[in-house]
Amino acid sequence: xxxxxxxxxxxxxxxxxxxxxxxxxxxxxxxxxxxxxxxxxxxxxxxxxxxxxxxxxxxxxxxxxxxxxxxxxxxxxxxxxxxxxxxxxxxxxxxxxxxxxxxxxxxxxxxxxxxxxxxxxxxxxxxxxxxxxxxxxxxxxxxxxxxxxxxxxxxxxxxxxxxxxxxxxxxxxxxxxxxxxxxxxxxxxxxxxxxxxxxxxxxxxxxxxxxxxxxxxxxxxxxxxxxxxxxxxxxxxxxxxxxxxxxxxxxxxxxxxxxxxxxxxxxxxxxxxxxxxxxxxxxxxxxxxxx
Length: 291
Ligand SMILES: NC(=O)C1=CN([C@@H]2O[C@H](COP(=O)(O)OP(=O)(O)OC[C@H]3O[C@@H](n4cnc5c(N)ncnc54)[C@H](OP(=O)(O)O)[C@@H]3O)[C@@H](O)[C@H]2O)C=CC1
Ligand SMILES: CC(C)(CO)C(=O)C(=O)O
Known about the structure:
By secondary structure, this protein is of the alpha/beta class. The chain has 2 domains: 2-166, 3-Layer(aba) Sandwich (Rossmann fold), CATH 3.40.50; 170-290, N-(1-d-carboxylethyl)-l-norvaline Dehydrogenase, domain 2, CATH 1.10.1040. It contains 10 helices and 11 strands. It has helices spanning 10-21, 69-81, 101-104, 149-158, 168-188, 202-218, 225-238, 245-251, 262-271, 277-290, and strands at residues 2-6, 25-29, 38-43, 46-52, 62-66, 89-93, 109-114, 117-121, 124-129, 133-137, 162-164. The protein has an 11-stranded mixed sheet with strand order 8-9-3-4-2-1-5-6-7-10-11. Helix 6 packs across helix 9 and helix 9 (262-271) crosses helix 10. The radius of gyration is 19 Å and the shape is globular. Bound molecules: NADPH dihydro-nicotinamide-adenine-dinucleotide phosphate and ketopantoate. NADPH dihydro-nicotinamide-adenine-dinucleotide phosphate is lined by residues 6-12, 29-31, 66-69, 71, 74-75, 78, 93-95, 114, 117-118, 120, 245, 257. Its EC number is 1.1.1.169. Belongs to the ketopantoate reductase family.
């Protein structure tokens, strides 16, 4: 299979080196076209070179795009301008949700949700935490269509363990909830995930979770607020030493994904006629702190 990985971010680089390791043909599509014909990624003390390719693409290609939520709309617009040949698919991975997702998801798009952790240190990618992933068709009308067997098998070999998930949106809502229950608090308290256990946030987390459950149910997804707070607590314990991605973004003066997490919950709840005051407060507070 031919693969085209969007950018050289942490997750994209990790997938690029692992796809190469299992014998796939992998190129990289930088955000901005440049003169470079090859891009170096270092992994586990090995330097690997990847050819550079931009859209349009002429042969069937599997696109892997692990990009920030605020870049998704532009990326999909680029794809719309340069439609892919038949037999291509687009694997998207990002935290949070977009209001207009239903309208912009391409036919052959899949969501890849992961608990693997990675970060970049210059050209080097570090696989910081082993996890597992879930793959499913992005468009609701394709949810029960069969899984693309070869694509699934290659991704599973490259970065196991991969689960096929016809209910990928359920999984995405759970991930959104966990991020809403952890990330903004680490920014507000400027602390590692594990240090949250020393702060008195349980009551607030219950309110965040209940607001998310209401909205999810309104959109046809069943979640349980007690289980969400419990899961967030286990993630906090399992990642106690980590700084959340949102705190890292704030510290490095990068845009955060808060608009697509607690901000998404606040705006969508308001649009559905209900306030989500705790998510709204966290959203505004993180925006202030990261301004
Ligand atoms: N890192 C992790 O451990 C995890 C991350 N996630 C989520 O996955 C997503 C990606 O995370 P991460 O890899 O850390 O993010 P990064 O910011 O490290 O990487 C994103 C990459 O996407 C590239 N990009 C954006 N738009 C385009 C475009 N139009 N064309 C080509 N490349 C593009 C960026 O390019 P440029 O370099 O030019 O900005 C960047 O290289 C996020 O939503 C994150 O929350 C989820 C689980 C774990
Ligand atoms: C689960 C958590 C909070 C782990 O750090 C994460 O996904 C993030 O930092 O964005």
